[in-house]
Amino acid sequence: MKNVMASAGLLALGAIGVQSAHAQLVAGAEKPWSVSATLRGFYDDNYNTASSGSVDRRSSFGFEIRPSVAVNMPLDQTTISASYIFSMRYFDDRPKNKADYSHDFELLIAHNFSERYSVDASDSFVIAQEPSLIDPVNSLPIRSDGNNVRNDGAINLHATLTPLLGILVGYDNTLYDYEQAGPASYSAELDRMEHLIIFDTRWQIFKETTAVLGYRFNQVSHLSTDSLSVDPVNNYISPNARNNRSHSVYVGLDHSFQRNLSGSIRVGAQYVDYYNDSFAGTSLNPYVDLSMNYSYMDGGNVTLGFHMGHNQTDQTGVAVEGGLLSLANLTQDQDSEVVYATVSQKITPKLTGTLTGQFQNSEYQKGIFDGEADQFYLLGLNFIYQFTPYLSAEVGYDYDNLQSNIPFRGYDRNRVYVGITGTY
Fold first, then answer.
1. Would you kindly state where each structural domain of the chain is located, as residue ranges?
2. Does the pLDDT value for residue 7 go beyond 60?
3. CATH superfamily of 2-423
4. What is the pTM of this model?
5. Where are the beta strands (DSSP E) in 178-323?
6. What's the mean per-residue pLDDT of the chain?
7. Which of 36, 86, 116, 270 has its Cα between 20 and 30 A from that of 319?
């Protein structure tokens, strides 16, 4: 689930980075490395992601400095790609700690043992404050101060056993570590390690069609020793109470309708066991993953997708009963449905526009918030003008809107920016 939702969750802020990275690759196509630097001015009308009417809702002008380096080394049977992006965003309105600093390291190694066997390994290490960078599945859709860490490492083995049968065996490990600590902190609610094991069998029905029968196992283990309750002395509630393991079984198809149109579907069931919470027990949910890619013209591309699964949440929902916090009211996680779309169009030989959008409906599971929901809307519009292979300019707009049944949680946010990028 998280791989799909990760690609969707980065729509608002990530679209600009993707376009800049593309320009860097174009400029550096004749050499295995490239360096670039972006200077961007912006206006953010709610940089604290605070609810309407809150005293914490503040707006600010600012600027961002964003240097990066990328390496791409294609060898005989191995490809190695790596990149690092540093960002410093300065907010003029902040009375102190005016700057945010983020780091993004990406690594991909792919190796072909033969025509039938291959392996790929990747790692993504991020230190940031923006929710879409730290947790793209929106477990925490609110900005968090400090050096918050996400590390996602994966390895996948691909094997073609016969001309008709192939398998994919994969393992993904994700670590989340928030700086805010103490009772009822982000660390207590969200510090965790997630283990994902994938086993897919792939059956070549026709030249254009592959059938899939697959299984996924996911283990979520919370790591903090801080209490989920605000009064750990009188009523300590361990974050381990929110540990869970899930089993997903699904069938699917990958099909190329035309040379420029392809689609994928996965449909099945997901069984979730909250084994440390006797009040929560288990749940059975649909598992759905749909995607489509359409290159409708030269320089024009559309990506659409839908995903249904479950994800963690910062909302615990622990409430007071008779003066004591009750474990029976603990909210475990959310069941989410995500719809996302990206349209990229080359308007002129030098001008490219990208429109991205996402809608996520997340219903709380178990506890006092059981059945309540969040609706999260993301919209991004970006234009890049390539003056030369080494110099480009950009302008864009991002809009976030979180609507929630939880009081004082929802917010809206508008950001506009203009920038210039130099690449060598």
1. 2-423
2. no
3. monomeric porin ompg (2.40.160.40)
4. 0.89
5. 192-206, 209-222, 244-258, 261-273, 282-297, 300-311, 320-321
6. 91
7. 270
